[in-house]
Amino acid sequence: MNYYEKDGSVIITGCDSFDIEQTLESGQCFRFHRIAAGSYTLIAHLRVLHLEQKGGEIRFSPCNIEEFEQIWFHYFDLGRNYAEVREILSAADPVMVEAVKFAPGIRMMNQDVWECLISFIISANNRIPMIKQVVKNISDRFGDDIIGGERAFPTHAQLANAAIADFDTCRAGFRSKYIVDAVQKVYTGQLDLGGLAAKSTPDVKRELMSINGVGPKVADCVMLFSCERREIFPIDVWIRRVVQELYFGGSEVPLDELQGFAHDKWGGHAGYANQFLFHYARLHKIGTKSEVGS
Fold first, then answer.
1. Does 281 have pLDDT greater than 90?
2. Is 219 in a helix, a strand, or coil?
3. What is the DSSP letter of 161?
4. Domains (ranges, CATH) in the chain?
5. What digits encode the pLDDT tens for the residues 153-168?
6. What is the pLDDT of residue 288?
7. Cβ–Cβ under 8 Å, residues 18 and 78
8. Are the C-beta atoms of 61 and 8 separated by less than 8 Å?
9. 14, 56 in Cβ contact below 8 A?
10. Measuring CA to CA, which residue among 273, 251, 253, 275 is closest to residue 264?
11. Which residue among 20, 43, 110, 111 is buried most deeply as judged by most CB within 10 Å?
C-alpha cells in the first residue's frame, strides 16, 4: 500500500484488502452515511471524513498526511496484512474460502472504546438503521459541533447529568437505563476504560459486564471492535445461524460449544472469521427457514 497527499486529501493506492462499503456495512460501527456506491461520510475522532473509492484508489478528505498517519491508519487497521489473514482462515476450510471470497475487503476497525460501548448497548435487540439513528440523536443532543455540519459523540462527562428520560427522548427505549448506568460507572471511575488495554481478556469482559444490560455479546463486540482483542468471537443470531448451518448441518448447538468451536478452529484469528461470516450470512440470509428448506 502507498499513500500521498493531494489537494487537501490523502489518497491510498495498492491496497487490495480494503473495501469501504464492505468494511463500513459489516456491523462494526454506526456513524456513517452512504452517499453513493463507493462513497461514504464517516464521523469519528471529532472529524467528518469523506471516503471515496474508485478503481484502485481510496480518497480520504479533508485529510493530510499527519492526520492520516496519526488517526486513520490505525482506525482502519492499515498496518495489518489481510491477505495473510484470509489465507490463514481459508486453509483447509471450504466454508471460509467462500466467505472471504465474497467480501475480501473487510477490515477490522479500531474504534473509540467509549463510543463503541454505548453504541453496542443501543444495538441490543435493535436493527442497524435504528441503532444509527439513536447514536445520531444522542450526538445531536449532547455532543459538540465539529467541522462538517455534524456533532461529535458526547463524552461521559457531557452525559453525566443526563437522565433516563433524556435517552428516552433520543429513542433508546429500554436501553436508556443501561446507558445511564454505563455513564455513571465510567464517569465516577468505577470502570476505567483507559486501563482495559493492560488487563487480561477475561478481566476486560468481566468489567464490561458489570454494566447493567451488557451481556456477553455486547461485551465481546466492544472488545473486538475497540480493544483489539482479535481472538473474540461475538455470537448473535446471524453468526449462530451461519455456524450451525455451515459447520453443524443445521443442528442446534449451545452457545458455549459454539464459542469453543470458534476458539479451537480459528484461535487468535476468530474475530476476523466472525466478520467474514457475519457479512456473508447476513447478506445471503443463511440459516433462515426459507434457505434451510430449499
1. no
2. helix
3. T
4. 2-79 (3.30.310.260), 113-226 (1.10.340.30)
5. 999 999 999 999 999 9
6. 60
7. yes
8. yes
9. yes
10. 273
11. 43
